[in-house]
Amino acid sequence: MEKNTSFTEGKIMQPLLLFAVPVLLALFLQAMYGAVDLLIVGKFASSADVSAVSTGSQIMTTLTNLVSSFAMGTTILLGQQIGSGKKEEGGRTVGTAILLFAGIAVIMSVILVVFAPQVSSLMNAPEEAF
């Protein structure tokens, strides 16, 4: 017997939790990575190093939240299309989202590599590191 999880029929709490828990877990793990990184660096490095790790962790958390927000928006649009029976449009939405995320990854990679000295000066990091 195959169990079909639907967000349009029946109780909503269990399917919603099954959907939300992996997202929340990923965000929690990202935050814990930053915290553990700070603990390790704090034990063995100087205060400038701890400050650099803290700033980097904040930037990574912000980027992770931005990408998660785009993913949730895509999921909402996909759910609306599948719920209304427009599965072909849902497939196009998934394809568009994949291209969007690939484009964001390429653009952010280029920006961070090209503008690394400017970004480091904004964060008050020494430029000789680059």
Description:
This protein has 4 helices and no strands. The protein is mainly α and 130 residues long.
Low-pLDDT parts are none
Residue-averaged pLDDT: 81
**Terminal CA distance:** 59 Å
Task: Let me know the number of strands.
Answer: 0
Q: How many individual helices?
A: 4
Question: From the helix content, strand content and strand pairing, which structural class follows?
Answer: mainly alpha
Quick tags:
single chain; 130 residues
Write the layout of secondary structure elements.
Blueprint: H1 13-44, H2 47-83, H3 87-114, H4 116-122
Brief description of this entry?
The protein is an all-alpha fold and 130 residues long. It has helices at 13-44, 47-83, 87-114, 116-122.
